[in-house]
Amino acid sequence: MSRRHPVRGLLAAAVLVASLVAPGLAGAHETGHEPDENLDTELVDALVSVDMGAEWLEGTDPTPELTLVHVDGEGVQATRDLLIGQATELIEVEDLLDLLVLREQELVERVQRTEATIARRTELLAERRAELAIVVESLGQAAVERYVMGRSPAPLSTDLADVYELVTDVRLVEAAVDDLIELKNDLDGVIADLELEIEGLLAELAEAVDALELLRGQLAAQGTRLLDLQRALPETLVAAREARTRAEVSGLGLSMVTVDAYLSAERQVAASHPECGIRWPVLAGIGRVESNHGRAKGGYVEVDGRVTAVILGPVLDGEAENIAEVVDTDGGALDGNGEFDRAVGPMQFIPQTWRAFGADGNGDGVVDVHNLYDAALSAARYLCDGRSSLDGPGRIRAALLRYNNSGVYADTVLSWAEDYDEYHLPSVPSELFELAVPAPVDAVAAASG
Questions:
Q1: Which of 449, 443, 418, 424 is nearest to 22 (CA)?
Q2: Most buried of the four, 102, 197, 295, 389, by CB within 10 Å?
Q3: pTM of the predicted model, to two decimals?
Q4: Do 117 and 201 meet the contact criterion of CB atoms below 8 Å apart?
């Protein structure tokens, strides 16, 4: 089996998004992390070994680099280890099959050589036995002639046909008997040697045939195992990928889908507001302060980004300390209060702001304040609105004060943002994908077409 599988699509986007990851939060301290310390190299090696990197990257919703980081969570390690184990075993089985096929060829050639040698030796044995029969018959006749006609000193021809003809000549009787006895003894020795050699060759042939039968059984068993692995690997890959989506990114304490929502917002705003430069750690800082990343009130972020709990801020009636008064702006449609507004969702938007900046962050055609993809993108758009650049802590802080006019709030978000910025998101290893190279255009054909 070849380990080379055709790439089923272009992954230029993976290269593009990797290039968009900035070296660090503007103004944040250097992290000192090694470039790829968060990359699950064992997983990458397994995917590369079976040429399934393209399938892994193309079949996943999260950011490609994010699917390759170390993660924690119940069940995720088991599926990861199963994927790595199956990929490793598949390579081992392929290598073993290669060796077994070579060994089979060697045994087949050995059987063929032994059979050919046996055939030649058997043919030679038949010839020598035929010669011996002539000699024995000639000896019998010579004995009669010697008894009847006497002796003769004349030499005997070494040709057996001549022997048969001349032994009746009285002059050759004595010589014929002596030579025939010597020739018979020689033939007896040659025949015994041939029979012994053939017996050994037959034993060798039987041994080779038994070894070939055993080896072909191994080939069949390993071939079956290879097919089983080839069928199981794609299913295990999907299971491992889905388990990782629900897992937490090691060292961050955030689920992969949560980090992906922030990364997705960063990259979409980089396309729509390239001058802004908002980065995901800032959005993560807001999400941490506003709703603990959608985990407030016992909720969590599902794989599609929707938060399971309805997260509502306090009623903005101005009665409590540090609570502003915001008269209802949406008839209670978003926050359920027709008198005063309340902040809604994991990024805590008041209805009026949501109407202005709400966006579809996950491409499902719905703008949902309770979906972290949508809420994160909307927060990024709001922070970047009317600003040329967020290239330093001062400008970021000013944008955060617009989000929530509290110095403590802005400083807390920035502190969390710096913590998250210490996490290094590795780039996609080039071994995992191949970019299709367009075939050269035939200028003559193009002109004539």
A1: 424
A2: 295
A3: 0.71
A4: yes
pLDDT score recorded for residue 321: 75
Count other C-beta atoms under 10 Å from residue 312's C-beta: 17
> C-alpha angle with apex 310: 309 to 312, nearest 5 degrees?
135
More confident residue, 137 or 41: 41
What pLDDT sits at residue 264?
94
* 3-state SS string for the chain: CCCCCCCCCCCHHHHHHHHCCCCCCCCCCCCCCCCCCCECHHHHHHHHHCCCHHHHHHCCCCCHHHHHECEECCCHHHHHHHHHHHHHHHHHHHHHHHHHHHHHHHHHHHHHHHHHHHHHHHHHHHHHHHHHHHHHHHHHHHHHHHHHHCCCCCCCCCCHHHHHHHCCCHHHHHHHHHHHHHHHHHHHHHHHHHHHHHHHHHHHHHHHHHHHHHHHHHHHHHHHHHHHHHHHHHHHHHHHHHHHHCCEECCCCEEHHHHHHHHHHHHHHHHHCCCCCCCHHHHHHHHHHHHCCCCHHHCCECCCCEECCCCEEEECECCCCCCCECECCCCCCCCCCCCECEEECCCCECHHHHHHHCCCCCCCCCCCCCEHHHHHHHHHHHHHCCCCCCCCHHHHHHHHHHHCCCHHHHHHHHHHHHHHHCCCCCCCCHHHCCCCCCCCCCHHHHHHC
pLDDT, tens only, 175-200:
567 787 888 899 999 999 999 999 99
**Cα separation, 126 vs 120, whole angstroms:** 10
Q: pLDDT digit string (tens) for 269-312?
A: 999 999 999 999 999 999 999 999 999 999 999 999 999 999 99
SS3 assignment for 205-264: HHHHHHHHHHHHHHHHHHHHHHHHHHHHHHHHHHHHHHHHHCCEECCCCEEHHHHHHHHH
**pLDDT in the model for residue 26:** 39
Residue 246 pLDDT grade (very low, low, confident, very high; cuts 50, 70, 90): confident
Provide the percentage of residues in the chain whose pLDDT is more than 90: 58
Q: In Å, what is the CA distance from 306 to each residue of 287, 289, 367?
A: 14, 18, 11
